[in-house]
Structure formats: C-alpha cells, structure tokens
Amino acid sequence: MKKKRILPIFITHRGCPTRCIHCDQGVIEGVPPTLEDAFSSLRRLLRQWEGIPDEVAFYGGDFAGLDAETLEKVLSESTRLVREKFGVTLPIRVSASPLTLTESKIARLKKLGVSTVEVGVVSMDGEVLHRAGRRYSPKRVKEVLLGLREEGFKVGVQFVSGLPGDTIEKFNYSVKSVFALKPHFTRLYPLVVIKGTPLGDDFLAGRFIPPGPEFHILASALHSAWARRFRVSVARVGLHTPSNEGKVIARPGVKNIRQKGEGLFLHFLLSRLRDKFGSGATLKIPSSWRTIFREGEKALRYFPEGFPSVESDGVAFSDRGYEGVVLSLPEKGELLVDPGILAEEFSKEVTVWGAMV
Q: Is residue 192 domain-shared with residue 272, that is, in the same domain?
C-alpha cells in the first residue's frame, strides 16, 4: 500500500484545556507555540515541497479547543497557502481531546471541511486518566467516538502506555473496548518522560518509576492483536525522534516496539496452530513478515521461558502476496488463517504475563 504524503502543521499546545502530567510539546517538538510561527513554518515547508500531498494534518494542540475565531483563521489561512502552492484543496486532519469534542465543535469541524479527527483517548481507565490530568471519563470517550462516526468523519485514536496507575490488564481493556467502536486507525505512544513536566519532576524525585521494556512490548502486542481482530489500521507505534533529545530522561528502553509486539503475537498464533494441527502441518507466513518474526524472537528474551513460540525452522516464508498465516494440511489443502481470531485468547495469556512484569 502506498504511504500517504502528509503535509504537517504544528500548533503546539494551542487549544489544550489542560496540561497532562507527561506532556510538554514545546520540549518534544522543539517549536514555538504561536500561530504565526506555525504559518511561517508551513510557508518554508511549502517552498521545499515537491509533488502534491495527500492530506494536511494539524499536530500538537487540541484543535477542537481553539475558539471559533482562531479555528476559522487557522483553517482558512492554511487552506489559502495550500491552494496557492498546489492549486487544489486537500483533505484536513486534526487532533483533539474528548474533553473539547462537543456536539457543537464536531458540527463546526464538519462545516469547515475537516475530514479526519484523531482523538487523544490515552486510556479507558478512570484512575489512569485522573492521574494523568485528563479531565474526562471513559464514557465520554465512547460518546465522542460514536458521535464522530455518525457524522461521517474518518476517526483515529491515540493511546499512551505506561502512565501512572496503568497495568497490562487496564491497557488490554482500553484497546479492546475502543477498537470495538470501529475507529479507522490507531497510534500507540509508549511513555517517554520529559524533563520539566510534572511527571519528569516525579521521576527525578523518585516518586514515579516508569514500567520497563517488558510492559511496552506486551502493550504493543495487545494493540496489534486487537487491531487485527477489529480491522483497525495501525498508523504508528512510538514517537518521532524528539528534536530536543536531551530533555528525555526516561524511555521504554527497547527499540522496534511495534515489530516486537507484532512478533510476540505472531509467535503465539503459530504456536497455537502447531499445537492444534501437529508437526504434519506446514505454517507459511508472508516474506514481508520475516522482520516481525525475528523481532518476536528478540521480544521473547525479555520474558521467562514458557511464552508460546515456534522455532524458525518450523515456519516457511512465502512471496505469494497473502496477508495472514497459511496452514497447509496433508491431503486437505491450504487454509488462510486471520491472526485476529486469537486476539481474545492471546489477551488472556498476556494479562497473566503482564502481572509478572
């Protein structure tokens, strides 16, 4: 699938009704928090841009939290600059909090031509939301997601794993319950602790100990499994490399978290198929999944022996272009297996392992 070309516009902290304990986008992105700076950055980017982008995306703030005048100014000016450069009007994507996505704001976004809304869900656990400084309830998240779908928006959701009070069991509930509402795509941000944030202060004072890599690998695996079960596209796992790297004082401590999580789920699936159909069955996976399989092997090293897995010599890689696991049985032919069918069983296994990390 061709990757979308996104024209980014950063409006750091604009419209945010709260300051979450872990968030300091001025530090993360390294950009000034004024609209004029955002427009200046857009003009510079447009001068260098080749070809026509697929979409304009606003990042960094809470777009629905902008007052009506500012919201219209941002959209009209950016649309003018884009039309001036490319001669066309592009689809618009914005990010917002469930707190500010009221019925009236949703209607206004639709009227102003916004086509995609990414919702900063973060978690569906009340304690995690409260401790993070998010002033909304899980019930509010559900109402917003359903409202956006009813109005015809393309809907994205964003999660953060590893916040204070978070557990694998809570994270599992969060992704499962949200994906059941059928958003179109999702992002997962493993927690990064930034110096100068309230959470950074707690970390330096010893009041908060971030979860280790095992937690984030399991969270990524659950995110992958439930996304496959409910056919939600995974847009990203992990932050872009921060511009101000020196401000990051704690991170997950593991690379390729998305691939390791997907690989852990893949090993579970292959192991269960092997257990059920025996050594006489041939397991085939796409050659494009080779890296995922290898990262799954690496992920297994973070856990005690006993997590379901298969050896590489028990799997064949194929270039036939299918998306899934092919189970080849003697005298019975081939069967394409959708990995999502084992999401529920996998989540139960992972929740048990999560209690040990």
A: no
* Cβ proximity of 109 and 117 under 8 Å: yes
Q: Domain check: are 240 and 336 in the same one?
A: no
Q: What is the pLDDT of residues 132-161, one digit of tens each?
A: 999 999 999 999 999 999 999 999 999 999
Residue 64 CA to its chain's centroid (Å): 20
Same domain for 244 and 294? no
For residues 102 and 185, state if they share a domain: yes
Average pLDDT over residues 152-175: 98
CB contact at 8 A, 351 and 206:
no
Residues 228 and 289 in one domain: no
Domain count of the chain?
Answer: 2
Amino acid letter for position 252: P
Overall average pLDDT of the 61-90 stretch: 91
Would the pLDDT of 200 be above 80? yes
The residue segments making up the domain with residue 319 are 261-354
Residue 1 domain flag: no
For residues 268 and 308, the answer to whether their CB atoms sit within 8 Å is yes
Strand-pairing partners, residue 116, are 93, 154
Most distant CA pair in the chain, distance: 69
Structure tokens at 194: 């930034």
Cα 265-239-186 angle, rounded to 5 deg: 55
- 318, β-bridge pairs: 286
Q: Where are the beta strands (DSSP E) in 225-323?
A: 233-237, 248-250, 282-286, 315-318
pTM for the predicted model, two decimal places: 0.92
Residue 195 to residue 297: CA distance in whole angstroms: 33
Question: Are the C-beta atoms of 228 and 340 separated by less than 8 Å?
Answer: yes
d(CA 158, CA 186): 6
In angstroms, the CA 288 to CA 284 distance is 12
Region label for 32, one of left (φ > 0), alpha (ψ between -120 and 50) or beta (otherwise): beta
In this predicted structure, the answer to whether residue 303 has a pLDDT above a threshold of 80 is yes
Contact 62, 100 (CB under 8 A): yes
Q: For residues 206, 212, 216 and 217, what is the CA-based torsion angle, rounded to 10 degrees?
A: 180
